[in-house]
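The freezer alarm interrupted the setup, so I double-checked each line after restarting. Inputs confirmed:
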Amino acid sequence: MYTLEELEYIVSKCNRCELYKGRTNTVFGEGNKQAKIMFIGEGPGYYEDKMGRPFVGKAGQLLDKMLEAIALKREEVYITNIVKCRPPNNRNPLEKESKICIEYLRWQVKIIDPDILVCLGAVSARNIISSDFKVTTDRGIWVKKGKFYIMPTYHPAALLRDESKKRGAWEDFKSIKEKYMEIKYMY
Ligand code: URA
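Predicted 3D structure, all chains:
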């Protein structure tokens, strides 16, 4: 079993798919290494690629606010993505790119050992829950897979594009907080 630091180093050298060619930095993920809850986005955007950190652009600022609204700090949770290198022009990661990179996510999950996974957006949910996942019908509903409680919700960038989705997102985040409190005090 690798440590998180060893895995981060391996990822920083990765050239297993074409995305490495366009990256400035890999974006491994950050936060509490023993987090009970992990937020998983799609892949780095422009600012994340420049800084090597997840969710630091506009969508990230909104994610911070949403976490704040349910009294969670970034330092308390772990935040990462399906792919660790920025896809060109922020396109969705291709299936083959996600398939390769999700192996790193699996290792991260094994090491950190969270109980709750939050899928931010359809790309994340399709890779983690089911390939035919649809945000419009399937978000906001807990999925139990093995030991994990998985909540698929909107990607914060989708909320920036369409304010009307914020009400649903708020319901999802309240439910996330409830489950988090339940789990935190169970052990
Ligand atoms: N969007 C994502 O899916 N992940 C990030 O890290 C930033 C924006």
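Quick read of the result. The first helix runs from residue 4 to 12.
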